[in-house]
Amino acid sequence: MALVSLEEAKAYLRVDSADEDSTIESLMTSAEQLCADIARLSDEQWERLDSDEEDVSLTPARKTLHVAILYALAYLFEHREEADHHGLTLTLRSLLFSLREDVL
Known about the structure:
Blueprint (H helix, E strand, L loop, with lengths): L5 H8 L7 H18 L4 H7 L9 H20 L6 H17 L3
Helix pairs in contact: 2-4, 4-5
């Protein structure tokens, strides 16, 4: 289970064709890594959150990461040529602040 699937990402971005699939997958990887870094998640924590593990205690963190990844993906997709990475990082810090403080 991925926190965000390609199909969900395409629907969120309102992309109907497969022409942009490789671009979206690449940006999704960047968005996921950016969110994991900003949330200060270790590789083990990320794998646990991104897994199929049925753990109710992970649900709030997964929902928060889901929103943050979609936001980052949409921002990177729409601003491919003139992205303000500082502004994006500040917004993601606000979204992910609760994960930065919690121990998963």
